Amino acid sequence: MAVDYTTRDGVAVITLNNPPVNGLGHSTRAGIVEGLARANSDPAVSAIVITGAGKAFSGGADITEFNTPKATQEPTLHTVIKEVEKSAKPIIAAIHGVAMGGGLELALGAHYRIAAPGAQIALPEVKLGILPGAGGTQRLPRAIGLEAALNMIVTGTPVLSEKLANAGLFDAMAQGDLLDEAIAFARQAAGKPGPHPLVRNRKIEHANAEGFLQFSRNTVAAMSKNYPAPLKCVDAIAAGVKQGFDKGLAFERECFVELVQTPESQALRHAFFGERAASKIPDVPSSTPTRAIQQVAVIGAGTMGGGITMNFLNAGVPVTLLETKQEALDRGLATIRKNYEAQVKKGKLTAEKLEARMALIRPTLTYDDLKQADLIIEAVFEELGVKEQVFTRLDEVAKAGAILASNTSTLDVDKIAAFTKRPQDVVGLHFFSPANVMKLLEVVRGKETAKDVLATVMQVAKKIRKTAVVSGVCDGFIGNRMIEQYIRQALYMLEEGALPAQVDRAIEKFGFAMGPFRMSDLAGNDIGWAIRKRRYQETPEIKYSKVADRLCEQGRFGQKTGAGWYDYKAGERNALPSKLVDEMIVAYSKEVGVQRRKISDEEIVERLVYALVNEGAMILEEGIASKASDIDMVYLTGYGFPLWRGGPMLYADAAGLYNVARAIRRYAQQPNGDAWQIASSVAELAESGGTFN
Ligand code: 3HC
Ligand code: NAI
């Protein structure tokens, strides 16, 4: 049963009971209507309380029903709210935990609202690419005023109930037991003569509503490029202000129906579920026991070790930080402090918190201090020999059951695990740089990694607010293995006729945060060079354009050397097209006998994105990633893929695998076409009309 019905002291209590968040799916909606009818026809009942079981009042409409017949099957949320408003007996919404989206809209339909402190109140629909579709854009401005409501609606940000205590939304704040107080309130309300008040009948008071809405429209338009929903929210609010409640409601409905079909909304919903799905590992059930992680140790206080340490300090977890030399340790600590100081300067952190976080670090030069650590993360130089030294030592000192993790970006986690006598306790934790900022964490599952180790690190990831995605062991794991094919295409296109600025511009227009050449200049062109040199030895059959090697031979490693694919003015990060590099590229084409041609932006985007898709497909076929949405999450959270496109695999689904396959086969016929070996799943889905997601 999605809804429970009980009575107490002459008050009917309708309890939404649809775990985990009392989503307003069809059966819940039907249950509410049934409960209302029963309460209204029962002479022993004088008032009605609607509340939620468990941790939430309601998280809103059931997103899994969107674009399915159930979403529009009566009773819709509109019908439910109409029934609430029509009720002759007063209805009190008793809110705790979460009242979001349709949940808040349902409460806004009630005659009265009582809230427990600490409840998260929001209309977060914009985050899913839609707008509140059950009267939220009409009732919230009438409840808390135009400006406050508009802010909540266009940002979707939750506000704590106590902050809204005097805003006009709640008739009372619960001091003790919410249900007891709601029932007492209901009994009192029943004693008052009807009709009971409705939010829809309130006026929107504003000295200059028109001017404010115009200003908001301009601001929102500038801030929500590529996302249609926020502007529609403003339009729907404006419709209600100008044309009254009913017309505003009808317009809101139209906008909802339109937005829910947009690719942007599909992408945002895909990301919402993709993030939650990523934490579920097919053969590691949620009941898998986890190991307690109270103390963490990090080895290496360099770029990554420092950032990784900060994640745990931010979550209040003490970290023992180990280095080989005092000097390196001091440098690492100073960088961490400097990063926090920058946050203090921006007003994002208080000086006390800075000190409290620094106090959680226990710097050390001796492995004996790692004996108590429950989780040890290694971030030392990227050399197998150094990793061997570290893991051999860890095997000697770490306590039984401690999780031993490596932040390696290219080395074989199984080989690292084999340096210990406890490979089941070894796992890869591939953080991205800067590790204290980037959301993505690739969890690399070795062939012997124990299930409880995986379950534990996924839990740890949540605690430090990372989006964790599990990858099998392979060169580059999910993200870097795919980016290599993308970079390979980018380099070939230079050889064939494009220049760095054109490639970057085309893919940035597509929506990437940064094109491949600006990105390489930022990360350091020497990193890719080192990888290619290794490939030339290990896999000589895989061809690469040598144009990037030429750049590196000139010492142009990127921003850190003041020159890369672009020129940089001293102390500045602006990428300025470089005449020298452009001439070098043209000369290189001549040298390798390629007749340069004009490459369209469309070709640039297709070759870059489909290179990701094709490699992603192989990663899925090999079981390196367990689902397509995991690959999308890697690209959305770690590589700046445009969120409104939902990730490479969803993008390929939307483009149609038939079209993707045709393009890949076409590019395979062009010069440098040997880089394109169509993935068998791409070919199969093109045949069957199927999709990855
Ligand atoms: N519909 C369906 N499932 C939902 C849901 C919803 N509205 N909200 C959350 N869930 C599911 C999640 O997918 C997850 O499922 P899983 O356990 O199977 O992975 C589970 O509930 C728990 O979610 P979280 O892990 O996010 O739990 P938290 O406790 O961290 O957060 C929350 C709870 C704050 C409610 C968060 O889930 C959230 O922000 N949900 C989205 C709320 C939202 O956007 N509501 C608006 C819906 S659209 C709408 O109402 C349209 C209306 O205007 C007509
Ligand atoms: P770094 O050179 O900035 O830091 C390495 C630190 O390890 C140095 O401070 C060094 O003194 C210390 N160190 C070396 N040997 C040690 C030992 N035996 N015991 C203790 N400390 C030791 O390197 P960075 O960039 O932080 O990389 C570290 C690891 O993280 C590498 O495996 C790298 O592949 C990986 N990584 C790096 C990323 C990046 O963007 N820099 C991204 C993701 C992973």
Question: How is the topology of this model organized?
Answer:
Layout lengths: L2 E6 L2 E6 L9 H16 L5 E6 L16 H4 L4 H10 L4 E5 L2 E3 L1 H8 L2 E4 L4 E3 L13 H9 L1 H10 L3 E2 L11 E2 L4 H13 L18 H15 L5 H15 L1 H16 L2 H16 L17 E4 L3 H12 L4 E4 L3 H20 L5 H9 L1 E4 L10 E4 L5 H14 L5 E4 L6 H6 L7 E6 L8 E6 L5 H13 L3 E6 L6 H18 L3 H11 L5 H8 L1 H14 L8 H7 L12 E2 L8 E2 L1 H13 L9 H21 L6 H11 L9 H8 L1 H13 L10 H9 L5
Parallel strand pairs: 2-3, 3-4, 4-6, 5-7, 6-9, 10-11, 10-13, 11-12, 13-14, 14-15, 16-17
Antiparallel strand pairs: 1-2, 7-8, 15-16, 18-19
Helix pairs in contact: 1-3, 3-4, 4-5, 5-6, 6-8, 6-9, 8-9, 9-10, 11-25, 12-13, 18-24, 19-24, 24-27, 26-27, 27-28
Describe the structure.
- The chain folds into 3 domains: 257 residues, Alpha-Beta Complex (2-enoyl-CoA Hydratase, Chain A, domain 1); 176 residues, Rossmann fold (3-Layer(aba) Sandwich); 210 residues, N-(1-d-carboxylethyl)-l-norvaline Dehydrogenase, domain 2 (Orthogonal Bundle).
- The protein is 49% helix and 11% strand.
- It contains 28 helices and 19 strands.
- The strands form 4 sheets. An 8-stranded mixed sheet has the order 12-11-10-13-14-15-16-17, sandwiched between helices. Strands 1-2-3-4-6-9 form a 6-stranded mixed sheet, sandwiched between helices. Strands 5-7-8 form a 3-stranded mixed sheet, with helices on one face.
- Helix 3 packs parallel to helix 4 and helix 27 crosses helix 28.
- It is globular, with a radius of gyration of 29 Å.
- The two termini are 31 Å apart.
- The mean pLDDT is 97.
- The site of 1,4-dihydronicotinamide adenine dinucleotide (NAI) has 24 residues, from helix 12 and helix 15.
- Pathway: Lipid metabolism; fatty acid beta-oxidation.
- It catalyses: a (3S)-3-hydroxyacyl-CoA + NAD(+) = a 3-oxoacyl-CoA + NADH + H(+).
- Keywords: Fatty acid metabolism, Isomerase, Lipid degradation, Lipid metabolism, Lyase, Multifunctional enzyme, NAD, Oxidoreductase, Peroxisome.
